[in-house]
Amino acid sequence: MVFKNTLLAFAIIGLLVGCGNQSATKTEQNVEQPVASTTDTTASKQQGIIEFEESAFDFGKVKEGAVVEHIFKFKNTGAAPVILSQVSASCGCTTPDFTKEPVLPGKVGEIKVSFNSLGQVGNQQKIVTVSSNAENRVTTIQIKGVVEE
């Protein structure tokens, strides 16, 4: 009889302890999820946003060998500084140079694109890919026109 009572006591204690742990686990999960989603929402509101004045420049017609340059200006319309991490062209004949400093909210940055038309006769469309920490992480601009012999 004592053995049965001891066994019953251990079973009840095990049940109570087991239920207590499940309750604590559920409470921890409920607390953690809202905090994570609040942080994610705040982070998305605290990003920079790149807005170009123009996304394409048409240089018209030029003679082969001419170097065409154009400056693309963009404004950071977001709430955090924008840092351009990489600006690359689709062709070796096109060279980008860009603002290296962080562009603060409300301020303007620049990307200067130079196109060397030597050996590039015909219709041209060169894409420049801009990578940054902005909300729109990767965006493109283009320079296009016709190179005549």
TrEMBL record:
Keyword flag Signal: yes
Alphabetized InterPro entries for the sequence: DUF1573, Ig-like_fold
Alphabetized PROSITE patterns for the sequence: PROKAR_LIPOPROTEIN (PS51257)
Transmembrane segments: none
UniProt keyword annotations, A-Z: Signal
Pfam family, one: DUF1573
Signal peptide: 1-23
Record has Signal as a keyword: yes
Name of this protein: Uncharacterized protein DUF1573
Organism: Sphingobacterium yanglingense
